[in-house]
Amino acid sequence: MKRKYIRYSKGWLYVLFHSGMELMLHVFFKKIMYHNRGGVPGAKPVILAANHPTAFVDPLMLCLFLDPPLYNMTRGDIFKKTFFRKLLEQFNMFPVFRVRDGYSQRGRNDEVFEFCIERLKTNHTVTIYVEGEHHLSKELKPIQKGIARIAFGAYERYQQDDLQIIPAACNYWKGDSPRDTAYINIGTPIYVRDYWADYQENPGQAVLKLCADIEKALLPYTYHIEDQLFVTTAERLLTLLRNRKPFSLWPSVTYKNTRFFEEKALLDAFNQLETTQKESLEQQSREYFEALDKAGLQDEALMRPAAAAFSQKAALLLTALPALFGYLTVWPLYKFAQRFTANKIKKPEFKTSVYIGVAGLLGHLYLLIFLLAAFFVGNPYAIAAAILLPLFWWFAFIWRDWWRISRAASKALHHPQRAELLAQRTSIHLPSL
Question: Which domain does 350 fall in, by range?
Answer without folding.
Answer: 310-414
